[in-house]
Specification:
With 253 residues, the chain is α/β, with parallel strands linked by helices. It is built from 12 helices and 8 strands. Helix content is 43%, strand content 15%.
Length: 253
């Protein structure tokens, strides 16, 4: 059984005090949520404060990005993966569509960041997904396959066991549009087939694949009912503790 993961990406929101307040508000709301892993990704400046306050709880902390370089040095503005680990993070989001779209992140760079995260003993959440133009042109599967091939290049089966993939259709991020559960399942199943071809069937069945794209309390249950959706990467709906807790409790009657 693949253990579901519900991860909240706070993006560039919340000062340190706001981040701590939200994390502490979330803590009692999900204290009995033993059915899934819970992850929140505050801004870099708040990671240590949030991680310290959540120590001993069932909520883990993620970085929203990391440097592709593993060796410390003259890389102004970058944060190394092992620095995130030192601050209290245990996960890191890599290759988010906003990094690709606005900051020129390539599949090669994503691969380097995955390698850096693994070396730092972080769990990388590797994001893949197509734009609306690519989907309309019938290129969705080709684009996603290329991102997987490039982003996971040179990885071993044992390394894959430490990785999570998040499928995030770019056209459904922050737009209010959501892929239907059937659309999401179709791509998630395709991703699992690609992984099976490259790493073997057993590895593909162990891999957790999240869905990200305007996930909300009213659509999470339908998404989680799909056989190849193993959790969610939540954006805006993770900024409020009560709303995010409802998503975490997707299995509530």
């Amino acid at each position: 059984m693949r253990r579901p993961v519900i991860a909240g990406n706070w993006k560039m929101h919340k000062f340190i005090a706001d981040s701590v307040t939200t994390a502490l508000a979330l803590k009692p709301l999900v204290v009995n949520a033993n059915h899934c892993e819970i992850v929140i990704a505050p801004v870099f400046t708040a990671i240590k404060s949030v991680a310290d306050r959540l120590e001993g709880s069932n909520i883990r902390v993620a970085g929203q990005d990391c440097a592709p370089e593993q060796k410390h040095g003259a890389h102004t503005g970058e944060v190394a993966a092992d620095m995130l680990r030192d601050a209290g993070a245990s996960y890191v989001i890599v290759g988010h569509s906003e990094r690709r779209q606005f900051y020129g992140e390539t599949d090669s760079m994503v691969n380097r960041k995955v390698q850096a995260a693994l070396a730092a003993e972080l769990t990388p959440i590797v994001c893949v997904g197509e734009t609306l133009a690519q989907r309309d042109a019938g290129l969705a599967e080709r684009v996603v396959k290329g991102q997987i091939d490039g982003g996971l290049r040179d990885l071993t089966v044992s390394a894959l066991e430490r990785i999570i993939i998040a499928y995030e259709p770019v056209w459904a991020i922050g737009t209010g549009r959501t892929a239907t559960p059937e659309q999401a399942q179709q791509m998630q199943a395709f991703i699992r087939r690609i992984i099976a071809e490259r790493f073997g069937e057993e590895a593909s069945q162990l891999l957790r694949i999240l869905y990200g794209g305007s996930v909300k309390p009213d659509n999470i249950a339908g998404l989680m009912a799909q056989p190849d959706i193993d959790g969610a990467l939540v954006g805006g709906a993770s900024l409020e503790a009560e709303t995010f807790a409802k998503i975490v409790h997707y299995n509530a009657a």
